[in-house]
Structure formats: structure tokens, C-alpha cells
Amino acid sequence: MTAPPSAPPSVPLARALSVERCEGGASLPPTDLAQLCEATNAAILDGGGFGWVAPQSRATLERHFRGVLLVPDRELFLARLDGEVVGAAQLVRPPRNNEAQAFAAALTHAFIAPYARGFGLARLLVRRAEERAAAQGIRVLNLDVRATQATAIALFEGLGYVRWGTHPAYARVGGQTVAGLFYYRLIEHPGGRSTGDALGALGGGPA
Ligand SMILES: CC(C)(COP(=O)(O)OP(=O)(O)OC[C@H]1O[C@@H](n2cnc3c(N)ncnc32)[C@H](O)[C@@H]1OP(=O)(O)O)[C@@H](O)C(=O)NCCC(=O)NCCS
User: Fold this and answer.
1) Is 118 in the pocket of ligand 1 (CB under 6 A)?
2) Phi and psi, residue 134, nearest 5°
3) In the chain, what are the domain boundaries?
4) 29 CB less than 6 Å from ligand 1?
5) Third-level CATH fold of 18-139
6) Is the pLDDT of residue 46 over 90?
């Protein structure tokens, strides 16, 4: 008697994670733009965290992302899972007239669609934005998040972001006023002068 064939061992499929920076002024391929809009609305429906509280029309989202690519001080990063666009983040540098804060940038509008969470894509997205910031001479990255976004708070604190303040009237969502948490992280430049040296003593002001 021959033994019945045994089921092949189940091997978890490796997922392909990637993050890319969009070239400013370039247009997104239609498939990428469609996937980005779908991911955005899925994240908004799940609780958002980046401005919109209600899902938007495709036309509105397309206009938004086309506009982002036209703003000189703003860069869009796309996160992909198995090649599909499932999230994004924006890196915003101060305008040129703001020389006093030219060393700092903001990370905004970071999200991963609910169907692509838990694979490490957000961590990769933030790290790629930090690398880009470092390459542009940025020494400090700032960000803020609603106090209700527990996952994002765990993400950013796990990545070394330092909470420096709470804004009690940060956002209005569902008829409620929600607090906001403000963070910064010092960015090192591999092979360059340390950020501690470049910035000197922090917190200078009137005694
Ligand atoms: C926050 C968000 C971007 C995380 O995306 P993600 O791709 O699932 O995150 P990752 O898989 O890269 O996880 C990175 C870290 O986030 C935290 N995290 C992720 N999922 C979590 C969960 N369900 N519970 C608690 N912490 C979690 C952990 O610290 C995790 O690190 P670990 O794996 O070492 O524990 C995603 O949940 C999201 O888009 N949320 C809504 C929008 C938002 O809040 N944006 C940020 C403010 S603009």
C-alpha cells in the first residue's frame, strides 16, 4: 500500500516592498495614479490621518497629486507592494525665503492603504524620505500626527522621533476636536559632519 501524497509544506510568499521618489514636474503613469487614488480613499475610509476625513472623487485626488508634483519644495514618495502603489508620503522643504529654517523639512501625508499594512512598508517609506532629506542637506525632520493615530505614533516613536509638544486643538474629525502630537528627528549625513556639530547647542533663546 502506498502512502497518500502529503500536502506541500506551506511557505509564506515573500512580498516585494519598494519605495520611489517621483521626479518633480513629471506626470505619474495613469496606472500608478489610479492605484494611488484608490489607496488614498481606502486609507481615508479607514480613518485617514492626513487631512481628508471623507473619501474624495477620483478627479479631486488626481488634481491633488498632479499639483503635488508641480510644487518645487514638495516631493512625493510612492510605496509599492508587489509593484502596486499602496501608499505615499510627502517631503516638504521650507520656501527659499526661509533661510533660518533651511536645515529643516517636514514629512507629511504619510499613509499605507489598509490592505497593505503590516509588511514594513511605512518604515521603508519614512527611511527613504529621511535619506533623501539627508542628501539635500536637511538636518531636522519634523512631523505631526493626530493623537488618535496610535499606529502612526508607534511607527514614528519606534523610528526615533522625539515628541516635543501637544496641540490641544489640532484637528476636527467627526464633530470632535482632536489633539495633535508634534515630533522631530535629527538626521545624520553618512560620511559628513555630524548633525550635533552642524547645529551646535540646541534650544538657544533668551535666558
Ligand atoms: C501608520 C501606518 C503608515 C503604518 O503603516 P504599515 O506599513 O502598516 O507600518 P509598518 O508595517 O512599516 O510598521 C512599522 C511600525 O509601525 C508600528 N505598527 C505597524 N502596525 C501596527 C499595529 N497594528 N499596531 C501597533 N503598531 C504598529 C510598529 O511600530 C511597526 O514596527 P514593528 O513592525 O517593528 O513593530 C498606517 O497604519 C497608516 O497609513 N495609518 C493611517 C494614516 C496615518 O496615521 N498616517 C500617519 C500620519 S500622517
Assistant:
1) yes
2) -60, -40
3) 18-139
4) no
5) Aminopeptidase (3.40.630)
6) yes
Task: Determine the pLDDT at residue 38.
Answer: 97
Kindly report the average pLDDT of the chain as a whole number.
Answer: 93
Q: What is the dihedral of CA 73, 108, 204, 137, to 10 degrees?
A: -40
Nearest-atom index, ligand 1, CA of 109: 48
CA distance 184 to 104: 9
Q: How confident is the model at residue 206 (pLDDT cuts 50, 70, 90)?
A: confident
Other CB atoms within 10 Å distance of the CB of residue 114 = 14
Output the pTM of the full model. 0.92
Q: What single-letter amino acid sits at 38?
A: E
Sorted by sequence, the CB contacts under 8 Å of residue 13 that are 6+ apart come out as none
* Residue 151 cell numbers, joined: 499606529
Q: Select from 88, 101, 91, 106 the least CA-distant residue to 43.
A: 88
What integer is the mean pLDDT of 183-201? 94
Q: Is the Cβ–Cβ distance between 91 and 133 less than 8 Å?
A: yes
Q: What is the pLDDT of residue 68?
A: 95
Residue 83 CA to ligand 1 centre (angstroms): 20
Distant-in-sequence, close-in-space partners of 25: CB < 8 Å, separation ≥ 6:
69, 70
